[in-house]
Amino acid sequence: MQTEYDDFRSSVRRLAADKVAPHAADVDDQERFPQEAWDALCAADLPGLPYDEELGGSGADLLSQVIAVEEVAAACASSALVLLVNWAGTSTVVSQGSDELRSEVVPRVASGEAGAAWCMTEPTVGSDLSGIRTSAVRDGGDWVLNGQKRFISNAPWADWYAILARTGERDFGVLMVHRHDPGISFGPHEKKMGMRGSPTTDVALDDCRVPARRVVGDPVQGYRYINGELNGSRALIAAQALGIAQGAFDAAVAYTGQREQFGQQLSRFQMLRGMVADMAVKIESARALLYDAVRLISDDDPRARARVSMAKLLCSDNAMSVATDAVQLHGGYGFVRDYPVERMMRDVKITQIYEGTNQIQRLVIAKDVYAGQARA
């Protein structure tokens, strides 16, 4: 089994090195969609990894998805984000949607012909999803949505938007909105510090009308559905952070192995060797925790919730540290865009913020510690 995962990792790593990495700097500089990378990922059938074969996918497990995100993120974090957001945007449809809705949405996403996004954040709502104001009201055979979603990754590129909306005073539903539905529109492109190749805009819903078949499962259980998908999505964000860290580490090791100062390679200096050793430990310890969390998620173990919060926290915090040290090891060259570590340092910051800030992850972990759920 391990050989199977190793072979898969090697194949994605070669793909990322050959087809993704060469375009990463231009994608970042031009703030454009990573089309070359997306075409390569589609040709390798990676968009279909998490979906069953009858929906056009390959039915790969969560660990395979994590490995794919890691390896793509090591080359281009924006490309990895487009991929994993597609999976997140369809996760509730796959787990809770009707057969009809799954057939309508998933196959074209699995093939890469269509994109997906999930829409939770609003102008005044981030981590506290219970404060969502976007509404969905039943009107005959349709639902009518009104509200605004903010910082939506894959918008406006995506075709499908999983909208978490208030369907009652204390009830929430998830509704699938298509980019061509009447009443949906998109804001201007966000000018971001990092992840510049990931399209990000507001999604506005102004009397947006969708047919009743587009409600995911029970229209009053959406909050529970979304929370049920957070374990998997947080594992993928942790993997993205870990991949960026690995990419920055590899670049720093290569640079210090070639660059000479005072008549010898930088890699011969003891203080630099200590930094590299610390970076290696941070990456491998974060990877071990993430893979343990993936195991618990796959086993439906109740400890998974706290463990994946630990993994998301450790992977992103360690990745920020590793990327910063990678810039330091490049000296002045790390501060210019000619070297990828500058981009990686900017890209990795958001992994400490989205999919639940690391402060929120600490609260989740502490709650489970006191409840006795976080113990190995």
Automatic annotation (TrEMBL):
Any one GO MF annotation of this record: acyl-CoA dehydrogenase activity
Organism: Pseudonocardia kunmingensis
Domain named Acyl-CoA dehydrogenase/oxidase N-terminal: residues: 4-113
The entry's keywords: FAD, Flavoprotein, Oxidoreductase
Name of protein: Alkylation response protein AidB-like acyl-CoA dehydrogenase
Gene3D superfamilies per the UniProt record, alphabetical: Acyl-CoA dehydrogenase/oxidase, N-terminal domain, Butyryl-CoA Dehydrogenase, subunit A, domain 2, Butyryl-CoA Dehydrogenase, subunit A, domain 3
Domain (Acyl-CoA dehydrogenase/oxidase C-terminal) ranges: 221-369
Family affiliation: Belongs to the acyl-CoA dehydrogenase family.
